[in-house]
Design a protein that fits this description.
Blueprint lengths: L3 H23 L5 H23 L7 H9 L7 H17 L2 H25 L5 H38 L2 H24 L6 H24 L3 H8 L32 E8 L2 E6 L8 E3 L6 E7 L8 E8 L6 E7 L7 E7 L11 E4 L6 E5 L2
Parallel strand pairs: 1-4, 3-9
Antiparallel strand pairs: 1-2, 4-7, 5-6, 5-8, 8-9
Helix pairs in contact: 1-2, 2-4, 4-5, 5-6, 6-8
Keywords: Membrane, Transmembrane, Transmembrane helix
Length: 374
């Protein structure tokens, strides 16, 4: 029942399983080594099954041996693609979901192509007819599928490099790579004699460099500032520092212009260190602004001074939980430079209280604008 070849692979299967189980209990079940050992176990078991099914290629009769020797099998690289997909899938389980999805796609694509190759080879005894059958079945999907996978891999590896190096280094790398691609294309177009083997060598060398650099960058991870900002949103409410000083998070790369002006009910100005406001449609300054309750309302803030200011809306105080601690309620814009403007959008669910009115203030400037909510 068991052929000599299958016995070796069954032994390797048992060794891989025992090693994987011991590694999980003694080291770490989520470590990369555990995935590698389980991959060894699955691969060895699969090969052992194939060995038992094919009986190591042995035949029972002379007629079967003659028939097997007369059948020619066309060379195929799809088993290699299938194996690569399996390796990428296992690697993606331990590293990144993008690698896992890519490996799964390569695995499924390689399996489908491999099955169709095997089916086409058994269509007839004529190899040319078999190739024609295969081309009619799936030939139209070969090159687009391969191109999509290659482009996806190139884009992913290149993105890992760009996210690992600094912004200045990324610009330099992008310029150098673009220049090399342009120079190579120009040289091959100008001298057709260099095509063929030279093109293949350049492609292989470029692919190896990209693969090594991309994998190394992926293992090193993204640069520190990207990791920092990925963990928390610098523009979240918890980081809004509405004082006079610049905030570390909230004032990072402020937007000094407003493109969408629909729904603006008033404009607040800072000029000569004083705050004033004008409602839409009025050419005179007002001391209070009326805002509809529970409606999203936008107030435009424009700084006419050389110093940086921010607009703050103060909406009273609320009690924190069951304690007696009172916390201020409000929001603000980012710091705004000279002749710059920002929009402040608020939704106030409760009416204002004459004894503790809502106000618009600018830290560092004098004056305030009352906010009336009916």
């Amino acid at each position: 029942m068991f052929t000599p070849g299958s016995k070796y692979f069954l032994g390797l299967t048992g060794l891989g399983l025992v090693s994987a189980v011991l590694y999980c209990f003694l080291v770490n079940p989520s470590d990369l080594g555990a995935y590698a050992l389980f991959g060894l176990f699955i691969s060895a078991a699969l090969i052992a099954g194939f060995s038992i099914f094919t009986r190591d290629g042995d035949t029972d009769t002379v007629a079967e041996a003659v028939e097997a020797n007369t059948e020619t099998t066309a060379p195929s690289f799809w088993p290699l693609v299938f194996a690569l997909g399996g390796a990428l899938t296992l690697l993606g389980i331990a590293t990144n979901e993008i690698v896992f999805v890519l490996g799964l796609a390569v695995l499924i694509g390689g399996a489908v192509e491999w099955v169709i190759d095997d089916w086409a080879e058994k269509a007839s005894a004529d190899s040319e007819f078999n190739a024609f059958v295969r081309h009619r079945a799936i030939g139209a999907l070969d090159y687009p599928g391969i191109a999509a996978v290659v482009l996806g891999v190139v884009a992913f590896l290149f993105s890992r490099i760009m996210l690992t190096v600094s912004k200045d280094e990324a610009s330099i790398i992008f310029i150098i790579v673009s220049a090399l691609i342009f120079a190579t294309g120009f040289l091959l177009a100008a001298k057709p004699a260099l095509r063929g083997k030279s093109t293949a060598i350049i492609s292989v060398v470029g692919a190896l460099i990209l693969a090594v650099a991309g994998v190394t960058s992926a293992l090193n991870g993204e640069r520190k500032e990207l990791v920092k900002y990925a963990k928390e949103d610098p523009y979240s409410i918890s980081h809004r520092e509405c004082g006079e000083e610049a905030g570390e998070h909230y004032d990072h790369e402020p937007n000094g212009s407003v493109s969408l002006r629909s729904g603006v009910i008033a404009t607040v100005f800072v000029e000569d260190g004083k705050i004033r406001a004008q409602e839409v449609g009025l050419k005179r300054d007002v001391e209070s602004i009326t805002i509809p309750r529970s409606n999203s309302t936008t107030i435009l803030f424009r700084n006419l001074d050389s110093e940086e200011y921010r607009l703050v809306v103060n909406l009273g105080e609320v009690k924190v939980g069951t304690t007696d601690v009172m916390e201020k309620v409000g929001t603000c814009t980012q710091l705004t430079g000279k002749n710059e403007e920002q929009a402040l959008t608020v939704t106030i669910p409760k009416p204002s209280n004459p004894e503790a009115p809502y106000t618009l203030t600018v830290p560092g400037a004098t004056g305030e604008i009352k906010v009336v909510v009916p």
